[in-house]
Amino acid sequence: MENSIYKILEWVDKPVLMVDKEDCIIWLNKTARNLLDGDLLQGRYFYGEFLKQRETMSGIKDIVMYAGNRYLLEKEALPTDDYSVYYLKNQMLTEYEVKEAYYETILEHISEGILGSDGEGKVILYNKAAEEIEGLKAQDILNRHLDEIYISNAQEGSEHEKVRDTGKPILNQYRNFALCDRMGHYISYNTYPVQKDGKIMGAVTISRNEKRLQELIFETIELKRKIACSHDRAQSKENSTAYTFENIIGNSKETSELIREAQMMAMVDSNILVIGETGTGKEVFAQSIHHFSKKSKQPFIAINCSAIPENLLESILFGTVKGAYTGAQDSTGLLEDAGEGTLFLDELNSMPLAMQSKLLRVLQEKKVRKVGGSKLFPVNCRIISAVNEDPKNLMDTGRLRKDLFYRVSSLVLYLPPLRERKRDIEALIQYFIERYNRILQKNVRGVSDELKEILLGYNWPGNIRELEYVIENLMIRSGINEQLMVEDIPPYLRSDLTKINYEQLMMERREKQGSLKEILEEIERELIVNTLEETNWNVTKAAEKLQILRQSLRCKMIRLNIVREQK
């Protein structure tokens, strides 16, 4: 019988050792002899050579170490009870198998679709969620090349190839996925390179069915459209824009010339391209042009092309027919809603190239076809577009089609950045101070000379929008002062805002104020007044916050002549 056991165990593909009652190794199979030092181990005590690290919960298996490697030890007694058979399994392999089981469970139960390909573009991973999203079966596509599977839509294959070539992920992508037997639906997805030790092994796409999000977006859009239409009917005899040329603030020659140029453009119906950095007021000028034109009684509709995925943007601009895809309802597009008025396309350079092609066709033919429909509708509105970069650079880098540029830029209005029209800064500062006086119920009259020097010397990369943000922060921190001061600048803005050394300005200001006693009294007075303001002039609460006696606070108020102003 022993010979039969030896013959069976000899060809087992994992290390097998036979141990007697004294724990002495009496035999090793071929795998054990090759993997371990067979000649050296035979005749030695097992636990003298294999160090026990721990026992498993069952007690049948141990974790042992030999020559720096960890093994899972499984014991089995022979029928004679004279010997035991010890099976060894590499612990690293065991841990891998456990992890693999976890990964397989996760992949099959998460709601995101997973599509993985190897370095040659062959599909090696395709989970259950991906099957549901794309209507395919893993058994039909595994080990096949992406180009074979996605013949009608090579997007997956080309994106995996691009990710493998560049090593950079492709993020925040959207597309309409049409199934053979069902209506299409939107999916969002990201594609990542798979790397090991710096080497790219393949690519993986993680996708999500955005059906519910799509339905919510269209419900919101339809609600906004109904509100807008109701508003237009209620004010059919009034202008539908919020801004006019009178709302454009600025004393510089450049701004005056811009207004005159824009007014001339408003007199004709040609399409206009407005070029300007972020925050220069592109929509303010677009609305002002509409208000000044003969279209002023017609709708003005604005949309930011960067805020909406490509397929949703197509539906919003062109409209949809019921059943075009899951959740689609009969709806007019913005091109139709604009009627004889103006459609403002902000950040046109953020519109995907495929969508740019569709828009170009509409502008050329002056007709639009709804998504899923066959009927053509006339387009009679004027298009005002805006870009926040140099169009030449956008075209050279492939982000703006040249033919679309020529179609939307019959007239071009360039808005210079705020740093190129410094004279406008003071007027804008005063305008924003007055605005936030009303909002915050304050009575600030202006800014100190030191602060003005800082504001005029700053580069303003965010232009007018950034200036408004800074003034708002200064107003909130200004207390009851009638002037905005350098010390009102929030700490998180100082490093960006102050090209002139902040500490140096504060030192100069203190030198101008006089003696140390006067400076300390001014600081003490300001601290007390601010605390009283915070506590609505409750002296007891203010004293508690200042951590002084109520009587001491009263004395300081008398000494520093602090009284509450009557409103």
UniProtKB/TrEMBL annotation:
Keyword Repeat assigned: no
Gene Ontology biological-process annotations: regulation of DNA-templated transcription
SUPFAM superfamilies found in the cross-reference section: Homeodomain-like, P-loop containing nucleoside triphosphate hydrolases, PYP-like sensor domain (PAS domain)
Species: Natronincola ferrireducens
MF GO annotations: ATP binding; sequence-specific DNA binding
Keywords of the record: ATP-binding, Nucleotide-binding, Transcription, Transcription regulation
The name this protein goes by in its record: Arginine utilization regulatory protein
Residue ranges occupied by any PAS domain in the UniProt entry: 99-174
Keyword 4Fe-4S: no
Pfam families: AAA_lid_14, HTH_8, PAS, Sigma54_activat
Residue ranges constituting the Sigma-54 factor interaction domain according to the UniProt record: 248-476
